[in-house]
Amino acid sequence: MILSGSIDETAVHYVAAAYGVAWVVVLGYVVILNSKLGRLERQLDEVVGLLEARRGHG
Amino acid sequence: METANGARIDRATAAALAATVLMATALGLIFFYVPNDASEGYSQRIFYLHVPIAMTTYVLFVWGALNAARYLWTGDESLDLRSYVPMHLGTVFGTLTLITGSLWAQISWGTWWDWSSTELNSFLIIFLFYCAYFMLRFSVEPGERRARYSAVYALLGVGLIPVSVLAVHLGQDIIHPITFTRHGANMDNSMLLTFLVSLAAMLVLAYSMYEVELRGKRLDDRIARLRRLAREPAG
Question: For residue B235, is it within any domain?
Fold first, then answer.
């Protein structure tokens, strides 16, 4: 690879697209993890509800 | 590791912090430090994203396969998840490799994909092979049998990686340049530094994602067990 000083505008768009895609994928990953945390929270609430109901009966 | 107020920093947090610092440094180097390549110009900057992602994909698949081998050797159930998570992340990074590679191919070669390139095709084969890993895994009921089948499949796939790397060097691919040769890196020192920082950033990012995902899966298992126990009649 050799060094040069010129910048092509089309190349800038492609570089931005490549880095943008990577950013969107990482962000998507965080969104998926967040929805999973929400599901785990709901399941945990269900367990708490079951245990409290059991305590109420006993 | 501990903070000043005594709070413990876990591995995932430490890795995520390191990834943030490394990623910021890498982006700074890519856009403000490293000069343009004479033959490819500004678009060569995709190299600092695409190649580290591709290398991280290989590392994740090898890592998953190593844990699969350890599972088959020891029978330790926790290694099944430690094998599955890198495979999952490997396909995420593999998808990114294909997308960033296609963008780079379009601007450099004027085509989104070149079917005559050994490296592209062998990477695609490895990627599709590991996509099928999930079809196999989720077609079998959870348990020892699923873990064993998945481990064997993961191990079979890892053999394709050295074949892919060798194919490029033996085939002397003219359209897909070979940057790393037996005599070292074929690039300027500033480019090499930028590349190495980007690679470190990507590897640490993958490690932090691995830790977070693994923790999520373990939590999932524990809550499922807790639900089963809570539904059982008392006494």
Answer: no
